[in-house]
Specification:
Elements (H helix, E strand, L loop, with lengths): L6 E2 L9 H6 L19 E2 L4 E4 L5 E4 L2 E2 L5 E5 L5 E3 L5 E4 L5 E11 L2 E11 L9 E4 L1 H4 L5 H13 L9 E3 L5 E5 L4 E4 L6 H10 L3 E6 L13 E2 L27 E2 L1 H11 L3 E5 L5 H12 L6 E5 L7 H4 L5 E3 L8 H10 L12 E3 L17 H13 L4 E3 L8 H7 L2 H7 L8 E6 L2 E7 L5 E7 L5 E6 H4 L4 E6 L4 E7 L1 E6 L3 E7 L2
Parallel strand pairs: 3-10, 11-12, 11-22, 12-15, 15-18, 18-19, 19-20, 20-21
Antiparallel strand pairs: 1-26, 2-5, 4-8, 6-9, 7-8, 9-10, 13-14, 16-17, 23-24, 24-25, 25-30, 26-29, 27-28, 27-30
Helix pairs in contact: 3-4, 5-6, 8-9, 9-11
Length: 507
């Protein structure tokens, strides 16, 4: 028995995962879908707080579940913004810095819902971690404009959009030659109409992102944001790769085209930038931040990859997120390693500036990787939400099964990631492979993750003494969206091997 964590290590048949059951010779069953089906009455799943810069376009679609049609309205919507009552899309501009507290409403024939929504007009955007999708993990260099649009439509048609999933991000290999009005990188033959693609994604109520690098050449061998000549012409280098060593062409060129490219992205309607090089340093970060700020559009700014922790005190004022480690893989060991790396970065995270342990490996077994089991995917999603990490999917959105959809549409779990306070969970108790994480929430409650990283079923208990609690407190199971009762001293749950449970303790 550990000194800080009460652990009952007993075999709990009811908690055995399908994978373990199969290994023991029992009949395998379908993966457990913990998330209840949405009710017919409307439920608003909007972020609690939303940032926009003065004078830039305001783009926000109210995510809500429930039987359609739903009619949307808002109390206290500031002058300059317009709400479409049929779609829940809010557009317009706000010229002056300030804060506005709005009440959003949704109504259908089965009932109504309301939710507080705070708008902050200032210099900080991405006040909650971005949620969306990135093309690389599934498609890599096979990505095309048609595939991006197909996945955007799937995000909308599957209902992910109704739970806050927003960004559809293009990774490397879209880049053609420089040209156009801004002498900026244009789309190649796979992306013949970038403006049309952006418009089509926006018409779905979603946002779109793009990829670039300040290097002369990207990781995948495409034109970068700098050059060794003032014309910005590019010839692909095909010799020995020496990436991450500041050796051309994987190095910063003499001439930077960051302002040109940012103006083009603003004209197309880009909403997110993944800026990829190594090591991430101040001159290139600041130059691109300034270029994005002058683009006339709010473009979330994400640094990649393996940002040096020593550089974060300089970079964090400019970037909305930064990768804290190398590329994630769809296997248990690498996923756990990514999550555990986050602990030493906790002090740098705050609203608008997020530690990024890389994409979600949910619903995918790409690149000859073994993939994660259903229990491991629950651990993955639980951990990323407790960490307030950006939630970026890497799977094929056009081919999701009910289990994957259930995992990605639990609004109470997502709300932990999107909490207004923006605090990162930290481990409060550990005994071998059994760990308890706790995250303070804006309403005064605690989100608590019970993790079993080992290979044996166990009961994991979170003790009040470790959580700095006294007295009796109500506890809710967030994955199953049900109240567990009122507890004193501790709360315990059976946890399957390589799995996790998530509860909220009210104060």
């Amino acid at each position: 028995m550990g000194s800080r964590l009460f652990l009952g290590l007993t075999i709990l048949c009811a908690a055995i995962s399908p994978v373990v059951a199969a290994e023991m010779g029992a009949a395998a069953t379908a993966p457990e879908i913990r998330t209840p089906r949405p009710a017919a009455a409307p439920r608003i799943n909007a972020v609690p707080i939303f940032g926009v810069r003065p004078g830039n376009p305001f783009l926000y679609r109210i995510p809500a579940t429930g039987e359609r049609p739903i009619t949307f309205s808002a109390d206290g919507l500031p002058s300059g913004l317009t709400l479409d009552p049929a779609t829940g899309q809010i557009t317009g501009t706000l010229a002056q810095p300030g804060e506005y507290v709005v009440t959003l409403h949704a109504k259908n024939t089965h009932g109504a819902d309301a939710k507080r929504f705070k708008i902050v007009v200032g210099e900080t955007i991405a006040l909650t971690p971005p949620m969306g999708w990135n093309s690389w993990n599934h498609y890599a260099s096979r990505i095309t404009g048609a595939l991006v649009l197909a996945n955007a439509r799937a995000m909308a048609d599957s209902g992910l959009i109704d739970h806050g999933w927003t960004y559809v991000n293009i990774d490397d290999t879209w880049q053609g030659a420089r040209g156009g009005e801004f002498h900026a990188i244009q789309g190649n033959e796979k992306f013949p109409d970038m403006k049309g693609l952006c418009d089509a994604v926006h018409a779905l109520g979603l946002k779109i992102g793009i990829y670039s690098t300040p290097w002369v050449q990207s990781y995948a061998g495409h034109i970068g944001g700098s050059a060794m000549n003032p014309e910005g012409t590019f010839t692909k280098f095909t010799g020995k790769k020496q990436m991450n060593r500041k050796v051309l062409p994987w190095a910063i060129g003499t001439y930077s085209f960051a302002p040109n490219d940012a103006r083009q992205w603003g004209a197309w309607g880009i909403d997110y930038l993944k800026y990829d090089w190594n090591p991430n340093e101040l001159p290139e970060t600041k130059a691109m931040y300034d270029a994005l700020r002058a683009s006339g559009r709010d473009i979330a700014f994400s640094l990649s990859n393996s940002t040096p922790i020593a550089n974060i005190p300089e970079l964090d004022r400019y970037a909305n997120s930064w990768r804290i480690y190398g590329d994630i893989k769809a296997n248990w060991k690498r996923m756990v390693s990514e999550a555990e790396q986050d602990e030493k970065w906790a002090a740098y995270q705050r609203p608008g500036h997020w530690n990024d342990p890389d994409m979600l490996e949910i619903g995918t077994k790409e690149h000859n990787q073994p993939g994660l089991t259903p229990d491991e995917e629950y651990t993955h999603m639980t951990w990323w939400c407790l960490l307030s990490a950006p939630l970026l999917l890497g799977n094929d959105l056009t081919a999701m099964d009910p289990f994957t959809l259930g995992l990605l549409t639990n609004d109470e779990v997502i709300a932990v990631d999107q909490d207004e306070l923006g605090r990162q969970a930290r481990p409060v108790a550990r005994d071998g492979d059994l760990v308890v994480y706790a995250k303070p929430l804006a309403d005064g409650g605690l989100a608590v993750g019970l993790f079993n990283l080992g290979s044996t079923p166990a009961t994991v208990a979170a003790r009040w003494s470790d959580l700095k609690l006294t007295g009796r407190h109500a506890v809710r199971d967030l994955w199953r969206q049900k109240n567990l009762g009122t507890f004193s001293d501790d709360v315990s749950m059976p946890v399957a091997p390589h799995s996790a449970e998530l509860v909220k303790i009210s104060r």
